[in-house]
Design goal:
single chain; alpha+beta; OB fold (Dihydrolipoamide Acetyltransferase, E2P); five-stranded antiparallel β-sheet; 30 strands
Length: 553
């Protein structure tokens, strides 16, 4: 009996399953949403049918089916074995997942719930966490279509002791995408024309799907003309024909172009736009240094700020032209190699200084508004936005120019005479004092050596002031007489009429150089020539007397 008891106990110890292990059982009944399972050794247990169902499906279980369950306890309060299909699946799954993780293999699973920061995934009994960032290669707004669908995942991290598993769907997609990209890129060659679908549009270009791989169509390669916004010519979902410009085998980046499939307008530019020819164009862009004008789609030229206006020198181009404005321009230079055309705007209009010179020759009287006053003169506004300058010395005949300048204000209307026009230097000289022509009238016919009669108007210590036909002059003391004793201003009186000799006519200063002394010397010289000589022995008195007597006769 003792030997039999020992054998019996040994048999129980060897065959009775341990709590906390996975055992095999057979379904003996299905009732009330539960399956009754016989795990042997006269032990039965109950398991909810939902534990045998896959996510989103109903349980497919029949009497007689063999299943594996997890034995929690040999006997519970009801005298039944406490078993669990979920725990059995979990243990089985962990063994399988640990092997897959070690071998870096994919595992199948289904997303069945949403949690903070991501989703829960059933990996065939083990629950894993799928972060939101690992769902797809692009942010997913609606994960509804993905719920309950069996699909592959990559295990990123797992800890059996803590029961943590982190998986990624994105890694699978990227790997598949990379394989697809490599295959597509392998079939592409530079220069090849292919069809693609516009997937995304940015300010610098558009991304075109070539069938599993995206290429960048830069804004500068969309058309030969300037494209400010890619949305002007493309829309998302549109099918376009593009040319493969460049393929980077390392980064798998593809550069695309549309304009390369069109005729290059620059090939005919030199023949079509001759130098110095004028054309209509449209302003497409304005910068600090000028404006770009489109002559035709794909052909633009630059009007430099220095070529925009004859008169507006230091203004922003935007104050002369505006975007989309139609303008007439002249072709100044063409560089086909650099694809550059230099244009001129002012060349289509006549030089205003040339026009002024034609319409206002020297001596013409003009009228204009004082635009600016500087320390050296006045700037007067003329036709066609040009200015003329009145120098200090050309303001008045009387007094200092600096003093006369104080009498003028901006906005004053003044009259002046054109004295010089320099078209090359863009300079016009004016004179206000030249308006007074009394001196020219008074001295008409008077020249150096002439004898005129003047009237004494003032007696000064240094000489006398005289007037001739309204033009005043001053005779210095030394010019009052040939005889030093008679060089006394006080011997004259205001109102006296005196004959004098003209020694100089200065139209610029409006002054006559006069001298009584010069007149006397001239008269003496003339008398000597007519009535005697220094060698005749006649005295000066005899000669003058003879001359006087001749005059009396």
């Amino acid at each position: 009996m003792e030997e039999f008891e020992a054998l019996l106990n040994e048999s129980f110890e060897m065959d009775t399953p341990d709590e906390g292990s996975v055992v095999k059982g057979r379904v003996i009944a299905v009732e009330a949403g539960q399956a009754i399972i016989d795990i042997g050794y006269k032990m039965e247990g109950r398991v909810d049918l939902k534990e045998f169902a896959e996510p989103g499906e109903s349980a497919d279980l029949s009497v007689g089916d063999e299943v594996e369950v997890f034995l929690d306890r040999v006997e519970n309060a009801r005298g039944e074995a406490s078993i669990s299909r979920d725990k059995a699946r979990r243990e089985e799954a962990w063994d399988r997942l640990e092997k897959a993780y070690a071998d870096e293999e994919r595992v199948d699973g289904a997303i069945f719930g949403r949690v903070k920061g991501g989703f829960t995934v059933d990996l065939g009994g083990a629950v894993a966490f799928l972060p939101g960032s690992q769902v797809d290669v692009r942010p997913v707004r609606d994960a509804g279509p993905l719920m309950g669908m069996k699909q592959p995942f990559q295990i990123l991290k797992m800890d059996r002791r803590r029961g943590n598993i982190v998986v990624s769907r994105r890694a699978i997609l990227e790997e598949s995408r990379a394989e697809q990209r490599a295959e597509v890129i392998g079939n592409l060659t530079e220069g090849q024309a292919v069809d693609g679908v516009v997937k995304n549009i940015t300010e610098y270009g558009a991304f075109v799907d070539l069938g599993g791989v995206d290429g960048l169509l830069h804004v500068t390669d969309m058309a030969w003309r300037r494209v400010n916004d890619p949305r002007e010519i493309l829309s998302i979902g549109e099918t376009v024909k593009v040319q493969v410009i460049k393929i980077n085998k390392e980064t798998h980046r593809i550069s695309l172009g549309m304009k390369q499939l069109q005729d290059d307008p620059w090939e005919a530019v030199a023949a079509k736009y001759a130098l110095d020819s004028t054309h209509q164009g449209r302003v497409t862009n304005i910068t600090d240094y000028g404006a770009f004008v489109e002559l035709e789609p794909g052909v633009e030229g630059l009007v430099h700020v220095s070529e925009m206006s004859w008169t507006k020198k230091n203004v922003h181009p935007g104050k002369i032209v505006s975007t989309s404005q139609e303008v007439e321009v002249m072709v100044l230079e063409i560089d086909s190699a650099k694809r550059r055309v230099s244009l001129g705007l002012k060349q289509t209009m006549r030089n205003p200084w040339e026009v002024f010179a034609e319409n206002n020759p020297v001596g013409t009287e003009i009228e204009g508004e004082v635009k600016n006053i500087t320390e050296f003169g006045l700037f007067v506004g003329l036709d066609n936005d040009i200015d003329g300058m009145v120098h200090l010395s050309d303001i008045t005949w009387e007094g200092r120019g600096e003093d006369a300048l104080q009498d003028f204000r901006k906005g004053d209307m003044v009259k002046a005479v054109v004295t010089e026009v320099d078209v090359e230097k863009e300079r016009i000289s004016l004179s206000i004092k030249a308006l007074d022509g009394s001196f020219d009238t008074a001295t008409e016919g008077v020249k150096r050596g002439s004898i005129i009669t003047v009237e004494v108007t003032s007696i000064e210590d240094g000489g006398i002031e005289v007037e001739y036909e309204g033009a005043k002059s001053f005779i210095r003391r030394s010019d009052l007489s040939r005889d030093r004793a008679e060089q006394r201003p006080e011997r004259f009186q205001v109102g006296d009429k005196v004959d004098v000799r003209v020694t100089n006519v200065d139209a610029k200063t409006r002054r006559l150089g006069l001298s009584i002394k010069a007149r006397e010397i001239a008269e003496e010289k003339e008398a000597v020539e007519q009535y005697g000589s220094s060698d005749s022995g006649a005295s000066l008195g005899d000669i003058l007397g003879a001359a006087l007597k001749s005059d009396d006769d």
